[in-house]
Amino acid sequence: MTDRKATLSVGNESIELPIYSGTVGPDVIDVRGLVQNGVFTYDPGFVSTAACESAITYIDGDEGVLLHRGYPIEQLAEHSDYLEVCYLLLKGELPTAEQNKLFHDTIKNHTMLHDQMRNFFHGFRRDAHPMAIMCGVVGALSAFYHDQMDVTNEHQRDITAHRLIAKMPTIAAWCYKYSIGQPFVYPRNDLSYSENFLQMMFGVPCETYKPNPILAKAMDKIFILHADHEQNASTSTVRLAGSSGANPYACIASGIAALWGPAHGGANEAVLDMLAEIGDVSNIDAFIARAKDKDDPFRLMGFGHRVYKNFDPRAKVMAETAHEVLSELGLENDPLLKIAQRLEQIALEDEYFVKRKLYPNVDFYSGIILKAIGIPTSMFTVIFAMARTIGWFSHWNEMVSGDYRIGRPRQLYTGSPARDYPKK
Ligand code: CMC
User: Fold this and answer.
1) Which of 68, 226, 305, 395 is catalytic?
2) Angle, CA of 373, 357 and 222, to the nearest 5°
3) Per the confidence metrics, is the pTM higher than 0.85?
4) What is d(CA 360, CA 367) in angstroms, rounded to the nearest whole number?
5) For residue 380, how many other CB atoms are within 10 A of its CB?
């Protein structure tokens, strides 16, 4: 596998560690043997640690590159559609025309939820956050398909993938419908994936919903751009949960929970909350000053990224789509969007942000598009989760199809050494 070695000195001991190369990207030093020398590596936040081997997605944060199975995200966003990207992530290759048609048809055959699942929605408080509902309902899918959850069975894994891809839009839209007290709208299989999602969100039983093709295309791009992103917090959570042999629905529910936080998938919702808090272009300078103040926890939401330190290639595509959607809807003068544009301009020029390479990320623009389409902010992370499900599933599937061990990180213990329980 490799002849190259890194040498680590610990005290008087010299330890040889193998070095491996991927197809592209940094080499890795295999530290697995270190435990035999009585030391662990220490890397909170996994800043320098590759936790697995994977052939799905590649990111070069310095160059602003994102590849799915080798294909650049910009090309996929321009030429592909979300379901084809799902197939690519899952299977490793783009489908032939025949495979593509079969895949689209198969997904359409799974869009309905078991009717008993309606009861789950009704068990939630009316004002529940849709992410809370989604976490619960997706986890509950395992209660409906328990006879087809053998993780060692490839065919069962395929069916689970189809079910998840097909049912997530129905679940997401029903979370919304429940929260506004409207009847659930059933999927329509004559529509495309994104058109169908929009009709389940905005349609009502008493009217025929006609999807706007520009908005449906923008939704499809949002889905493509969120489909996968390598070993981020939620994907790593799904892998860790899956490493114990947990069923895929439970693993995806754990990914949804991890995505919810404002530093990850919750950022698109946080962007709009922040724009509303800023309220007016005249207040921007005060908020920029707060973002720079080390004693103030406020951060400019939608700016910065752990991996992209040049630009976020997804943000480029999203920025273009945002302009298309705003002009289609005649919203170029919307006050919140004016604040967003001014913020973007200041952050791209201000020394603090330029020096730290804090560029607008995908969530900055996706939040603006979703708001323009009329989707409430509480649904933003739900839509992210829906699109990312294929990424989570593909990583889980890759892991369980190969050799894997239960994930079990170690720690640097700083608590009390052993001591005796006080005598009473
Ligand atoms: N506003 C103001 N300052 C910031 C921001 C921000 N949004 N992000 C980072 N910084 C500063 C930070 O204070 C630090 O400054 P200094 O070096 O002077 O101490 C420096 O930039 C580096 O920050 P960091 O926290 O070490 O960076 P990180 O890689 O750990 O965090 C991040 C990445 C995305 C969590 C962070 O940039 C952030 O909180 N951004 C806002 C939330 C957001 O938009 N998240 C969505 C990420 S994209 C979606 C996804 O892929 O999940």
Assistant:
1) 305
2) 25
3) yes
4) 12
5) 27
